[in-house]
Amino acid sequence: MKALLAVCLALITLTGCSQADTFGELADGACTDSQGRLVQKHIGEQISALSREDWESAYSYASSGFREVVTLDQFILVIGTEYQMLINNEAVEYGSCTVDSETILQDVRVTNREIDFQLKYELSYVEQTLGIESALVALADPLTNI
Length: 146
What we know:
This protein is of the alpha+beta class. The chain is 47% helix and 33% strand. It has helices at residues 2-23, 33-51, 55-60, 64-69, 72-82, 84-87, and strands spanning 29-30, 91-100, 103-112, 115-126, 129-142.
């Protein structure tokens, strides 16, 4: 039993250290490969929860600061009215990831009903926790078949 507890504690410590090492001190410029992978995983898991309409899970990927000012009910209302493309997405592609003044910016293209929506996600890394601050729709272009 003690050995199992020691292994569990070691795994928790190692997991925390790896994310802390990845995001420890954010330097302006392009995200590192490991930062980019973790950011994409975080956003992808939220989008997956949204597509399942698992609101509580999707909300959990928001930053603590976001959750302090936006309730779960407000989150559901905004997603349902302004971000249907995330709920009903057909494809998600990730573009550039950059760090600017300790803010992580990730370009994401979401396809819904043959329309490409360009979103810019803004994330923070506070107290060793990655969180989504916002997702702004930058552009929506229909795909043209000629």
